[in-house]
Design goal:
about 270 residues; alpha/beta; Rossmann fold; seven-stranded parallel β-sheet; 7 strands
């Protein structure tokens, strides 16, 4: 059945792939991003494009209302907008920490607030929150990113029970390693914030360790298939995971104690 789908952060990476794949399936897809000029390629593939800044309330309200005025409904919201800003808790500025939470948590929450009234009215809908295995496992240097994704996990659990009586599903997608611009942005910030600090040597080891895994990361289509599966399922799972090391990492986190997990993570750093 054709659905009206709104995808945030659709200008690149996974969001861009979600939009083009779902449009190919015949859905009415709105790809939203702050810079509309970066959405031109999607427009050529049948995706409706719309401006959206998840740190600006007026922009968020305008985006949702425009779609409701044109289509009369929003069946699926894919909260994909987000980024990773790495660095130590000691070195990352509070301004940057707040921006990380503003984009990854509060933007997601506000978009959810805005689509819920119409979903409740139609007694159906799906809210798909793109989290990460980083919402279950915390590595060194990723404190604020992990804080944001842990928050998304907990918020999704609360929301799921609140909206169940209205026929609305809440689904969390937990990607592992996926080819995108995410790592580049995260590691550039890590280098910038830890350069010439007490943590610079450890940070360089961390960066080298993860650079060796980049080639093993999954294509974003792997996660796109999970999103499609969640949308088409009559009774979707509450969580889906995929991508490089996603399932093993979540398995270890579930069964290993904190100190053992710490040792495992630190053992991955080159000597």
């Amino acid at each position: 059945m054709k659905k009206v789908i709104l995808i945030t952060g659709a200008s690149s990476g996974m969001g861009k792939v979600f939009a083009q794949d779902l449009a190919k399936e015949g859905h009415i897809v709105y790809g939203a991003a702050r810079r509309v000029d970066l959405l031109e390629e999607l427009a050529k593939k049948g995706v409706k494009t719309i401006a959206l800044d998840v740190t600006n309330d007026e922009s968020m309200r305008s985006c949702v209302q425009t779609i409701l005025d044109k289509e009369g409904r929003i069946d699926v919201l894919v909260n994909n907008a987000g980024y990773g800003s790495y660095g130590t808790i000691e070195d990352v500025s509070m301004e940057e920490a707040k921006r990380q939470l503003e984009v990854n948590v509060f933007g997601l929450a506000r978009m959810t607030q805005l689509v819920l009234p119409s979903m409740r009215k139609q007694k159906s809908g799906k809210i798909i929150n793109i989290s990460s295995i980083g919402g279950k496992i915390a590595t060194p240097f990723g404190a604020w990113y992990h804080a944001s994704k842990f928050a998304v996990e907990g918020m999704s659990d609360s929301l799921r029970t609140e909206v169940k009586p209205f026929g609305i599903d809440v689904i969390v997608i937990e990607p592992g390693g996926v080819k995108s611009e995410w790592a580049t942005i995260a590691y550039e910030n890590l280098t910038k914030t830890t350069e010439n600090t007490a943590y610079s040597q450890m940070a360089n080891k961390f960066k080298r360790a993860f650079e060796t895994t980049v080639s093993k990361n999954a294509e974003p289509e792997v996660i796109s298939r999970l999103v499609s599966k969640a949308i088409s399922a009559q009774k979707p799972k509450t969580r889906y995971s995929g991508g490089y090391m996603a399932k093993p990492a979540l398995f270890f986190r579930r069964w290993l104690g904190d100190r053992t997990m710490d040792k495992l993570l630190l053992s991955q750093l080159p000597k």
